[in-house]
Amino acid sequence: MKKIYYYKLNSKLLFSFFKISSLENASKEEIVNAKETIYFLKSMDPFSSRRGFLVTSCSQIASDVEGLGLLQRDEENSGLPTWITRRIADGNIKCINTSFPTWKEELDSLPEHWRINVIALGDVGSTLLIGLRLLGSNMTIGIYDRSVDKINRWEHELNQVRQPFDEDSFPKIVPLEEKDLFDCDMLVFCASKGIPPVGSENVDVRMVQLEGNREILKKYARAAREKHFKGIFAIVSDPVDLLCRGLYLDSNVDERGNLDYMGLAPNQIIGYGLGVMNARAIFHAERNPELIQYLKEGQVFGPHGKGLIVADSMINYNEKQSLALTDKTLNSNLEIRKFGFKPYVAPSLSSGALSLIATIRNEYFYGSSMIGEVFMGSKMRLTKHGIEVPSYDLDSMLRKRLEETYNELRSII
């Protein structure tokens, strides 16, 4: 068994398997008997690992690398002391990666009242705003667009949506100047460039947007770095997973082009695209008795587009039925386009507003977080101890599909 070192920092209790001379020592008894969260310090490559996260398995304590194995449930025999395994089971250990120069920021707590700022008020941004206004609570919503008329319109329109005899029941909508964008707890990026028009069904609409949207995002990546933004940077624009990775890399490059990891931490970046794929899978499963098990047993993984994985059941996985449901789900947006409309309402609400609200309420949602060298969608939640990504007893065929998608995402960025 490895030697364990015990520390105190800013009233927090920490432990590690290596000596950190700059920290004040604590006793083993203080750590073992602590009622509050304790923090496990380890060192991993920041190119492919998170700065902080909720520990959900013993392997996350023992391993020095992260990858697709995050989704695979542990073997039982860990060799760790009982007090550590008990705390993992109770969800009471947060891991912090000391390879990040900014690692001490992981000791900060989540806000009580969220300030959410939304960039770009086009079809997606405005629909998302409507959802936040009607369904959100414990938040203030700031809005920004290059068009002052759009800002003025949505400030007036949405602040005139009221519940009779409960006039203050909805979050307030506040107009912003660009310089104030990062004065918030969550920044929601909805900007898009070059969305193919209706009739362009023979192209991957999401991938067409990658170059243009990443170029727009670079400006905000630099600003987040310069302002030392500490909140959540939420990506709603397509392609979500690839833009998340691009944002992470672009915000952590210095003036000479070197990665210094002084920008956004990977766990500050969450992609919001997978929620609608789950909703579309439910829509089709409800119409086919052979797929109805998805509603209670199924899950989605991967990107919001090519590479999507719909598992018909996490209990009794069926490859044929899962592939059929995946195909139906992937083509749902094309059906809307055939009707003559851009499919933005369901994504704006299912992936956007509803998932953002679940995030600040510490509830499970579908989002993209960093898993090894890629951002990849899965079930997750933001807890006071950090992001939690559940693990599973994965069917071998499902594991193979996950590996294929993971490798495809890694090959692009």
Describe the structure.
The model has no long low-confidence stretch (mean pLDDT 94). This protein folds into three domains: 5-107, no CATH class; 114-271, NAD(P)-binding Rossmann-like Domain (Rossmann fold, 3-Layer(aba) Sandwich), CATH 3.40.50; 275-412, Alpha-Beta Complex (L-2-Hydroxyisocaproate Dehydrogenase, Chain A, domain 2), CATH 3.90.110.10. 43% of the residues are buried. The chain has 14 helices and 17 strands. With 413 residues, the chain is an alpha/beta fold. It has helices spanning 28-32, 59-62, 82-89, 123-135, 148-159, 205-208, 210-226, 240-251, 275-285, 294-297, 319-330, 332-338, 345-360, 396-412; strands spanning 5-9, 12-16, 24-25, 38-42, 52-54, 93-97, 114-119, 139-144, 173-175, 186-189, 232-235, 269-271, 299-301, 309-311, 365-371, 374-383, 386-388. The radius of gyration is 22 Å and the shape is globular.
